[in-house]
Amino acid sequence: MTTRRGDALAAIRYLAPAALVLAGLLGYPIYQLVLISFYDYGQEQASGGAPLTFIGTENYRRLFSDGQFWAVLGQTTAFAAVCVVGTLLVGGALAVLATRVRAVPRSLLFLAALGAWATPAVAGSTIWLFLFDADLGLVNEVLSGLGIHGMSGYSWTYDRYMAFALVAAEVIWCSFPFVMVTLYAGIRAIPAEVLEAARLDGASTWRTVRSVILPLLRPLLAVATIQSIIWDFKLFTQIYVMTGGGGVAGQNLVLNVYAYQQAFAASDYGLGSAIGVVMTVLLLVVTLFYLRALRRGGEELA
Amino acid sequence: MRIGRGLAAATAAVIGAVVAVGCAPVQARPDADAGDSTTGTLRVWLFDEATRAPKEAVVREAAAEFEAAHSGVRVEVQYVQVDSRAERFKAAFNDPKSAPDVAEFGNTDLAGYVAAGGFADLGADLRSWADARDITPSVLDTAKVDGRTYGVPWFVGIRALYYRTDLFEELGLRPPRTTAELVTTARRIRELRPELYGISVGGKYTYAMLPFLWAAGGDLARRDGAAWVSTVDDERARAGMSRYAELLRDDVCPPAQCAQMTGSSSVQAFAAGKSAMTIGGDFNRRAVDAGVAAGRYAVVPLPGEQEGSIAPAFAGGNLLGVLRSTQHRTLAVRFTELLAGKKYQRKMFDAMGNLPTFTDLQRAVAEGQEFQRPFVTTLTAGTRFVPATPTWAKIDAQNVLPTAVQEIATGAKPAPEATRAAAERMNAAFRS
Amino acid sequence: MRWLRRPGRAVAEVLTVVIAGVVAFPLYWMLLTALKPEGEVLAANPRPWTLAPTWENFHRVLTVSGFGRFFLNSVIVAVVVVALSLALSFLAAVALTRFRFRGRTVLLVMLLVAQMVPVEALTIPLFFVMRVVGQTVPVLGLNHLGSLVLVHLAFSLPFAIWMLRGFVAAVPVELEEAAALDGASRFRFTWQVLFPVVAPGLVATSVLSFMHAWNDFLFAKTFVTVEEVQTLPLAILVFFKPDQNDWGAIMAGSTLMTVPVLVFFVLVQRRLVSGLAGAVKG
């Protein structure tokens, strides 16, 4: 680290552009989000045709007394949990598998994973939707070809849990590569001597994984987990595209889609903002755990 | 340093925005006064249709006529999906620069759009327009909010029961005469022809559901002084909704397919020969004639509870209106008058089967038009409308009624619970 | 990895290849469907190959529905976002790794927290902010690509800075000292020495910014309602119809949308992996 005079001044110059953008387009909107959630803010107010009324926590009161909000919050949490666990399990298992095979199969796996990773969310959703289409989908064709009764014309998006499962499968498909790649790099970074020592002690593979690799990977795992939680909790595109905006009778709504509907379809921007605030607060709590995990992992920030 | 300058501009804009709004939530500046330029591009939004080509042809003709009569004017038409109209119009009201000058919109959305300050009062313009006197008064009422007129009725939309004559004959059935018979007939058809839907209707097809609700003696809401109170959870309304939901069952129209169907997909299924009956409007004729059901169907009024009665139809229809933010007010009004005038309503009738809104024109087209009779009969038997309040658009956008129907149909909630939840959400919207 | 080497490796390798096939299959199916003639797409028994590949779906997508225009819009947004975010995040990363000043740790923590903000929750305020901005600078307002550039720039910055920090920190300090001895100013050093050295890292970082802007659905859906300004993700939904989805066109559109990202990814994959590992480790 060089220490020259004028560092602070130079730093300000170098940081200013990014700081301005972040303050204007991230900081200020967060402030606005909180502010709007305390107002009666409908289309009339948005168009400037009616005065704004400060209504305090009225939007929150309405939100918390709405049974649907709690139902949506509950299923968002459960859905995100399934996606996170699935992503970590698949990504972790494949990272370990990748360390056990030679370069050619590993490259194939990485290439395929890279493809899934690179697929835009909308494209991924449409592909999976088509594979699982009731009439023209390959999956129903194969399943009924295997003699499974009632699979011809089966609608995967009709039953609530089936629809969630389908979306979760797509989400895991496009998000496990990140976990796999980071964990693979993490395992590779473990000094060979450590593993050698474990082997000489006569530890089994499973024991080595559990008592040597996992503890060493803990900070990395914590980061991957938190990142996954944040991604999956605020999912929008996949649910919106695959369940047609929230499924039959709104059974597949998640918080983000719900907030979007309240704000932009029903033009209740105040209530929509309140949902956004709740979502942000929940995720910031998760972030606190993340920071703590980083610290405990012995990582230095500076 | 081009990027640098752009960045500076962006920064300035952001800072400007912050300073401009200070501590209050961002709100638009009051709209600049509507302009009245006589040249330029006139932007028109019309609804997309299952079969758009004939509509497009008529509109193109009108646009050409208008452009010929007004030099320096170009008419640009954009077709908007009915499903996404709430967001599209919201965006137009929020960003006047992207808004059209003239737009087609459903009469159920009128109150909400007017409350949002979206459409211009056309009262004075209509008084000086000769055609206006012949608009059926009850139809013109659907264009009014608090005594002011915000649009010109473009066509009347009445729905009735379409059925396949060839199938009914082959299976020895007759058109149903009560709602109960409608259900049993539909069931019987699917029993005999399991590859067909007994009737294709959808969980999201509210205007097909409403006649059942009204026929059972129920209503959506009642007026309580100045306020509205939902009545969808009363016994009769519930019975009507449940009757409709009986159609969304595996033995008629399986919910796995039908729970998410809208009006246009219901009609499309009938047109494609996938169902023996459907509930469709006069305006759906073209779409049906374009499918395999062409020439093998007939239409009767949707029956009510009692034999010989007709279920009250929803007084649907679309209006053409001028947006308040238009910069071409006179041109926009003139174009509205042209497209919604007698000449082009007649052409739209020929092209799409849309029932005209002029009394004399209605009479003229009904003569010798066997097809129109069931719709006119339904119209004269009495029609109903949704509660005339700006909050209806919100209830509609929140899918309150489709959700209740879907819940009953799929068994997710029993009818009393589903309708109670719907009533609560309606009341919450009415109060807001 | 000798500790894991056992006779079971053959099984593991077969398994790996099979899994790779399963993971890649949806993409194969997308490409295949895009190349199938319409009759085969609508056939009741889909076959996993086609004997009559055709460009008809791509042709329909590109000509009939003006997909080219949407593609161009997406490219413009993504490229501008990448360029700006690289410039800004590079400067910020240099400041955060090379300069010593008070409040640096606080800034780093804020940067970390900023990455965690659920940006989707900000749709509502940003919608109104963009509307107001648009009244002053129209190109940055609603229904202009500028509004999308701005939001994605803001959202990709925190992670880009974080990731670049790793690459900049990896450049030996001696290099800077040598430059200083040569009398190079700090500014010149930053752009003429540091920038080229960090370039591979910049490319890796750019993939993520690119993907962010390219994939966005929510903001494009909310901010842009005018057809000419629409980006790819929304354009694909046009082919979902009430009666019969045009799957051939949907898959052709999805292919057009996926290929650029995929190419980009494959090109920078190695840097990406090391960059991510560095960024994740903080």
- Calculate Rg of chain A over CA atoms: 24 Å
> Radius of gyration of chain C in whole Å, from Cα?
23 Å
Work out the helix count of chain A.
Answer: 13
Major sheet description of chain A:
2 strands, antiparallel
First-last Cα distance of chain C: 26 Å
Structural class of chain A: mainly alpha
Spell out the helices and strands of chain C N to C: HHHHHHHHHHHH
The total number of structural domains of chain C is: 2
Beta-strand segment tally of chain A: 2
Helix content of chain A: over 70%
What does this structure look like?
The complex is a heterotrimer of chains A (302), B (432) and C (282). Chain A is mostly helical and 302 residues long. Chain A has a domain at 66-266: MetI-like fold (Orthogonal Bundle). Chain A is built from 13 helices and two strands; from the N terminus they run αβαβααααααααααα. Chain A has helices at 7-36, 43-46, 58-64, 67-100, 103-118, 121-131, 138-145, 160-188, 192-200, 205-233, 237-242, 255-265, 269-296, and strands spanning 39-40, 53-54. In chain A, strands 1-2 form a two-stranded antiparallel ribbon. In chain A, helix 3 crosses helix 13 (269-296) and helix 6 packs across helix 8 (160-188). Chain A is globular and about 75 Å long. The mean pLDDT of chain A is 87. Chain B is an alpha/beta fold. Chain B has a five-stranded mixed beta sheet with strand order 2-1-3-13-6. In chain B, strand 1, helix 2 and strand 2 (73-80) form a beta-alpha-beta unit. Chain C is mainly α and 282 residues long. Chain C has two domains: 1-54, no CATH class; 67-281, MetI-like fold (Orthogonal Bundle). Chain C starts with 8 loop residues before the first helix and ends with a helix. The radius of gyration of chain C is 23 Å and the shape is globular. Chains A and C meet through helix 1, helix 4, helix 5, helix 6 and helix 8 of A and helix 1, helix 4, helix 5, helix 6 and helix 7 of C. Chain C: It is a multi-pass membrane protein. Chain C: Its main location: membrane. Chain C: It is found in: Cell membrane. Chain C: One of its GO terms (biological process) is transmembrane transport. Chain C: Keywords: Cell membrane, Membrane, Transmembrane, Transmembrane helix, Transport.
